[in-house]
Amino acid sequence: MKKHAITLTVNGEERDLVVPSNRTLLDALREDLGYTDTKYGCGTGECGACTVLVDGTTSINGCLTLAATMDGASITTAAGLAQDGNLHPVQQAFIDNDAIQCGYCTPGMVLKVVSLLDENPTPTENEIRSGLEGSICRCTGYTKIVEAVQDASNRMAGVGE
Amino acid sequence: MTELKVVGKRVERVDVRAKVTGGALYAADVQLAGMLYGKIVRCYDYAHARVTSLDLSEAAKCKGVIKVLGPKDVTQKEYNASVLDMMVSADMRGVLGDIDDQSIFTDHVKHYGDAIAAVIAISEEAAERAAEKIKVTYEELPVYMTAEAAKQADALQFRPEKPGNLAFQLPEMAFPDNAYAWGEVDKSFDEADIIVEDTFYVPKQKQCQMEPGSYIALYDDQERLNCWTSTQMPKLVQKKLANLFELPMTRVRINATVIGGGFGARLGMVLEPETCALAMAVPGRPVKVLSTREEDWVTSPSRHPGKYWMKMGFKKDGTPVACDAKFENYKGAYYVDASGTAFTTGAWLGGMYKFDSLRYRGESYYTNQSICGAFRGYGNPQTNFVMEQMIDRGCAELGVDPIEWRKKWHKGVGDDGWCIGVPYNSCALDECLDRAAEAANWTEKREKYKNQTGTKRRGIGVAVMNHTSGAMPMLLEHTVCDALLHQDATVTLNLACSDMGQGSHTTLRQVAAETLDFAYEDIHIATGNTDAAGFDIGAHASRTLYVGGGAVKQACEDVRRQLFERAALELEEDVDNLYMEDKIIHVKGSSNKSISVQTIADQGVNNFMNPETGELIGQPGQIQGYASFFPPHNAPPFGTTIAEVEVDMETGEVKVLELVNAHDVGRAIHPGVVEGQLDGGAQQGLGMALTEETYYDDKGICQNNSFTDYKMFGPSDMPKMTNILVENPDPTGPFGAKGVGEAGLVPPVGATANAIFNAIGIQILEAPITPEKILKALEDAND
């Protein structure tokens, strides 16, 4: 199979790698580069566990994206969200609202929410719920995740500060 | 009780920082030097077939392949993947008979996805490519998907020692007439004024934990078998693997990784035997086996589906006189825990209402479905779907309010619990019902929803449940914990209880801090390595906080006792005359006589002799608390759900508008953790009631083992949730706590069904209650 030399900037660090045409971004991140915070949940784009951000704001499914098509892209995984040791407001909101149980969906879910709030900084409850579709959580029933998104939205808007 | 400092507080969970930054290591994330990859070859063409030829030669020649293994290349020992045999007495094991009916690889395929061979290669891709080169031919066998089919006289026998394909029925020895029973049921029905009876179907629901099964095994240079797995039961899996591979327990180590959800799917062994068998074939090299989602679906156990018949009799005044029931479950290809759910399904029924007489029969039949086993609730959701609809039908015929009837006739303190002979010792179900009814505007809405005529009709329904905290007395309950006091006066707890995300390590740490009167931050829980931790059952039966918490409390009390004894010697005072405040032990009534915990802990470790006097400075010896804890009871949690739904009479669609859950949790050690259990349980309970079922075609080929085709409640489907925590401390629970891990799933099942009954006046007898079934029922009613 044809191999491609590509460069990915992951969490601010530039990485060169060679991937065959069929290598998914998920496998490239996990297996080739060691970013195991990006999770495999279904491999078919149904669960969102492999969500990563492109250019800091656009969420994509790593399992549906071929790594070779991402040459030159800037990727953010959950491990890259915290800045200078401080958690991203979305991460902190997930902790403070008990929105994390088994944690397997959490990295992808948090990144999805970062993207959602970038697009719509003050979403309604219904907008949050429809925005989360495609990211499956089997532990929380979504209640506390919705609360965490509302909380994160307030924090990022500076409400209460 | 003195004011609680840590218990009851919403402390930050111990595991969330690692999870939110992606640092938490699940089994698939572990990477070892020299790692090889295993791919298990499965039969996806047939659900029942004999392998007539297996040619591994082409696969063995593929690039990157290290070894190819067929049935004869691995241990020939049969095993049972469940841990049931580890939790019952020797007598009961005798009654169950031979229940070891699984092989690592088989030449008799009994379900879609059964394992027949495996490839070990240098990469996952190389293993997958080689697996495609394995040539297998099959002889197709008749397929039995239901108990009715499997018990036909001419059906092929799965196991000669289990005639009639009856894997299990309640044994005569413990259950005369093969029934869990009291009173004289047949006679009691003669006294009944109203009798309701029907046959229901409960579905094969899947846990759908987000982390698919992932395993690593290594047979190392010290001839020790190491297995990295996110099992719910590290210590029992250690013993199971030791038995299977005939090794002493000292040569088997489980490295328990972070668990990406369990819900019963990781109770006992799943692919640990296969992975370890691969590792044994390549000593010195770690082998990683990663299940795809589709594979995990059909290789890890599901909820037990089956036919559930029930009959109830009532007197005109509402008195429940008789209940008769039979659950025939479609066990699947292997025995696993066939006796477990077949019994408990009836136990939850028997534990709920004060029937004068009751008889329940539970039977498990071998079928060509993928295996069934534990799933959160363990028979209780099935019973809830059936029992609670029957109660509401009875209430409708009696003309009584379903909440009023339940308040009058549910079992409570002093009544026999789910295990006859072990009475309930606490119950706050009345308060749960009152507070839920008020929060849901029950009375007003029941009145309002009478005589609706529109296309969209609303309904409100209730269900109640009883459950358990641990499986005592039917199964072994035991947890060992030691608590090591370090020289800086912090404590490491060493115990094998796993946290599958429910928050148990957080609540156990709270129990420890409260018991010791130390800060939450002073405690660490070391888990994950079976070399060091003592015995524990694992996470099942809502036991971790109740039994594990009991062990933690006892071990910490032991530390505290030793601290006070040493303080008494140092201060030359009676132990009873001492008290502790801010980790300093004082003498009552004396302002200047005190010694700090820090000093005692430090002197215990860094102990020196005074060179002038020749005496030791302080008391020598590092303090360690220890508990080998057997709980005295099973602290029953009770709960209720009131569900409100809207049914579209034209499309059959059901929208769940609101759930009000009120649960008797004993004490909420961490309210956020408890709410999380109720929220998450409800998502799964609603799924079972309305959308979730793994289904097969008539050849036994699974049709929906993926998130695309299996419908779970998503973020927009979830209703408004109200959780009411009723805290009525249990006399035996740590700080009064009861188990809450399973309870939240159970009553949403019956409440949703009853809300639909309230909306449309018809009961749907098969779960999940899909739009098709509602439309058919409405059509049938019009005919």
Topology record:
The complex is a heterodimer of chains A (161) and B (783).
Chain A: E1 3-10, E2 13-20, H1 25-32, E3 51-54, E4 58-61, E5 74-76, H2 89-96, H3 106-119, H4 125-132, H5 143-156
Parallel strand pairs in A: 1-5
Antiparallel strand pairs in A: 1-2, 3-4, 3-5
Chain B: H1 16-20, E1 36-42, E2 49-55, H2 57-60, E3 65-69, H3 84-87, H4 90-96, E4 108-109, E5 115-121, H5 124-131, E6 135-140, H6 147-150, E7 166-169, E8 180-182, H7 185-190, E9 194-202, E10 214-219, E11 225-229, H8 234-244, E12 252-256, H9 272-281, E13 287-290, H10 293-299, E14 306-314, E15 320-332, H11 338-350, E16 357-366, H12 380-398, H13 402-409, H14 429-439, H15 442-448, E17 456-466, E18 479-485, E19 491-494, H16 504-516, E20 523-526, H17 544-571, E21 578-581, E22 584-587, E23 594-596, H18 597-605, E24 624-629, E25 638-648, E26 654-664, H19 671-690, E27 720-726, H20 746-760, H21 771-782
Parallel strand pairs in B: 1-13, 11-12, 15-16, 19-20, 26-27
Antiparallel strand pairs in B: 1-5, 2-4, 2-6, 3-5, 7-16, 8-16, 9-14, 10-11, 10-13, 14-15, 17-25, 18-19, 18-24, 21-22, 22-23, 25-26
Helix pairs in contact in B: 11-12, 12-20, 16-17, 19-20
Tell me briefly what this model is.
Chain A is α+β, with helices and mostly antiparallel strands and 161 residues long. Chain A is built from five helices and five strands; from the N terminus they run E-E-H-E-E-E-H-H-H-H.
Written description of the protein model:
The complex is a heterodimer of chains A (161) and B (783). Chain A has 161 residues and is α+β, with helices and mostly antiparallel strands. Chain A has 2 domains: 3-80, Beta-grasp domain (Ubiquitin-like (UB roll), Roll); 89-156, Orthogonal Bundle (DNA polymerase, domain 1). Chain A has a 5-stranded mixed β-sheet with strand order 2-1-5-3-4, sandwiched between helices. Chain A has helices spanning 25-32, 89-96, 106-119, 125-132, 143-156; strands at residues 3-10, 13-20, 51-54, 58-61, 74-76. The relative contact order of chain A is 0.16. In chain A, strand 1 (3-10) and strand 2 form a beta hairpin. With 783 residues, chain B is α+β, with helices and mostly antiparallel strands. Chain B folds into 3 domains: 31-141 and 210-261 and 266-299, Aldehyde Oxidoreductase, domain 3; 306-472 and 632-782, Aldehyde oxidase/xanthine dehydrogenase, molybdopterin binding domain (Aldehyde Oxidoreductase, domain 4), CATH 3.30.365.10; 478-629, 2-Layer Sandwich (Aldehyde Oxidoreductase, domain 4), CATH 3.30.365.10. Helices cover 28% and strands 22% of the residues of chain B. Chain B has 21 helices and 27 strands. Chain B has a 7-stranded mixed β-sheet with strand order 3-5-1-13-10-11-12, sandwiched between helices. In chain B, strands 7, 8, 9, 14, 15 and 16 form a 6-stranded mixed β-sheet that branches. Chain B has a 4-stranded mixed β-sheet with strand order 17-25-26-27, sandwiched between helices. In chain B, helix 12 (380-398) packs parallel to helix 20. The radius of gyration of chain B is 28 Å and the shape is globular. The relative contact order of chain B is 0.13. Classes of the chains: A alpha+beta (161), B alpha+beta (783).
